[in-house]
Structures are given as C-alpha cells and as structure tokens.
Amino acid sequence: MQNYQSSTCEVHSGLGLSPQGGSRWGAILLLGGTAIQIPIIHKAHEMGLRVITCDNRPDNPGHALSDEYHNVDITDEESVLRLAKQLSVDAVVNYSLEAGVKAAAYAQEKLGKPTSPYSSVCTLSDKKLFRQFLREHGFCTPMMITCRSKEEALSKIQSLKFPVVVKPTDLWGSRGVTRVDAEPLHMEARLSAAIDYALLLSRGGEVIIEEFVEPCGQPIEGSAFAIDGVLTTRAWSDVYDDPDAANPITPVTFCYPSTQPAHLLDKLDSTLSRLLSLLGMKTNAYNVEARIDSNGDVYLMEVAPRNGGNTSHDILSLITGQDVQRAIILAALGEDCSFMRNVPYDTFWMGHVVHTNTPGTYQGLWTDDDFRQRNLVRYTPFLQQGSPAGTYSGTNKTIGALHARFATRKEMMEVASNTARYFRPIVR
C-alpha cells in the first residue's frame, strides 16, 4: 500500500513519442495556465514553439513554465484578439478549458487563421442553441424549456414530463446540473432549488430544463478528433456516476470500450459526423456525451468543441497511440493532422475522476500496491498537498484524474465497482 502523490506519474504509456527537432513556427498564445495546460506547454516546447499563456489567474502553475504570461480574461474575446495581434502569434490555442473555446475560435477567425466557424462553436457552446439546432435538423433531442427566472420556469414547466434535468445553458462539466424526479412531496422544493442553483452559476443568467433521456445500457462519453469535419479518431466509453456524491449525476468513471452494440456505436459515429458536416466544422478535437434509448435512437447530449477536461483526452492518446496534443497544436497552425486515425485495441481502459464526498484537506492518493504495479498508467493531481478539497458537485471539484489499463473487462469492472479498495484520495 502506498500514499502516492506526484506531478504526473507514467508507469507505462506505450506512446513512443520522441521530441521533434526545430520548428518553422514562432509562438502560440495558449489560453489558460492550469495544471491541465502543463502537458501541452511541454508539447509545444518539444515542437520548438514559444508558448505565451494568458488568463486572469497569475498564480496558475502553467505560467511558471511558459515563456511569457499576460493577465487577460480568456472569456473576453476582444481582449484575447487584441493580445494575439499585439504578440503576432502563429496561433491561438485552447486546450481542455471550456472558458476559452469561443475566444480561441473568435481570434483565429478574425486573424484569418485555421478554425471551425465561430458561429458554429457558439452553437455547440450553448445548450439552448445546440438543442434548437438539433431539433431544426431532425436529430433526436429531449423536449426542453429555457428561462431567466424561477417564475418563468414554473410557468412553462407543465409542458415537460418528469424526471427533468435543470442546467445552466452556458456551462459544461455538470456544473449547476440537477436531476429532479416526480416526487409528490418534494418535487416543487427540489425544482425551485435546482433553478436557483443553475441561475446562480450561469454566466449569462439563463437555464435550460429538459426531459431526462433514459439510456438503454450505460450513457456514453468519449473523445473524438475530426479533420476538415470528417471524424477520424474516437474512443467511446460507458459512464458511471457516484451515487454518494454531492451531485450524483456527475460522471465519475469511464470504462473503455463501450459495451453498446457495434451497430449502435456506428450510428453514433454517423450522427456525430452529420452534425459536424451541417455545422461546417473543420479540424477540431471534441468531448462528446451521448445516450442511446431503448428504441436505438441516438441523443447527442453534448458535443463540446474541445478535448475533454479531467485529462480525458489522454485516454484517446493512450488507446490509439495518436499524439492528440500535437494534433491540437497543428490544427491551430493549419498543418497536416492526417496521422490521427482509429486504431484497433484489445485492452481495456478506465478513466476515473478522483474526488471526495467529505470536504477537508487533500494529502495525496493512497493506492493498493498490486493495482499500482499491474494497472495504474497515470495519476494527475489537480490539487497540491495541503489544499482544500470540496465535495464533488461538478468537475470543477476534481482532485485529480487517474488512468488505468486492464487485460480483461472483468478485471476492469472489479476495480471500477470498488475503487476505494484499490485507490482513494487522502482527505483529512
């Protein structure tokens, strides 16, 4: 048994990547400097690029590793564009952070650099616009209402069937999301609290309430990469929640590959491809959440035009052997990404969002020795030892991200179903 804490542990990755010598490019402007941005800073340096970071948090750890830092809010599109012009960068890159998605597309488009259309990125970034687009183009999508006040929500709610899910229209990562069931005694109070919570967190002050889509089998989540709008690389997982978490519908464990039948996963691929084509998307990484109901209908719940948070993009690299970080940089530079492709694999992978259901002070990660030696591939802590750790109400409360590899699905599911036996955060 071991108390395990490091910046990033690599037990075995199998990527076989080697540093690239030289570069004809100059610099990229990277939006954000959190712990999640550190790998792409290293990757850009490996590619011979100068890395300039920006956000409004000077103490973020990535800034200490970049070549230059500017205090600019990455949600302020005009400010990001002005900074990119001032610095004459070769590309504006957003990596993992939802907050920088629109600003990166806006700056790239205004500068005449490669990007998916800004208007399409905005559509994918707003749940109301996304649901409307899906409905207008014949995709399966749940019935929903939007509102800017609790009074407005309560006046419209009769049009929906319970259970419903209440969400801010402009946030990802399950933040501000609550499921409300048809409980006669508590439904009204829970609905009222859910609306208040979502309105509090929404940047734009707007909330979506939609009917819950009951999946047949587990919900699906995965990372994908498309070149010129054509889906080239993806990995789909079964998603499991933690029923004891502060928000029990927030995804926690991702088991690859998905157990959905192959023909339904093919249907998911074609549904996603049609969406990307209709939106005119170009070369982009995506984080996708989907559900397949008992009729075999595919519901695209979220298609975020970014690689996923909580280092879920690492799974795509580990599974396929493709260098996703390099591809994201090359896409912003307008360079060839044809090395990104689907690769068959015969091992099983688990991604897990390390979290706590009891608030306290984070002291590290305990791991079982056998699990660490046999299965653990990588653990990336987002908190330093001694930092406060809050209960898991959304992905912004993540302690760290863990990836493990298994020879059989049975072995993987044993660990996924009993994570505390094999690893757990030490929170005092």
Placed side by side, the strands forming the largest sheet appear as 14-13-10-11-12-15-19-17
Mean pLDDT equals: 90
Overall structural class, as computed from helix and strand content, comes to: alpha+beta
Q: What is the number of E strands?
A: 20
The backbone outline, from C-alpha atoms, is globular
Mind describing the biggest β-sheet? 8 strands, antiparallel
SS strand fraction: 25-35%
Instruction: Enumerate how many helices there are, as a single number.
Output: 13
- Helix amount: 25-40%
Q: From the alpha-carbon coordinates, what is the Rg to the nearest angstrom?
A: 21 Å
| Distance between the amino and carboxyl termini | 18 Å
Uncertain stretches: 1-21
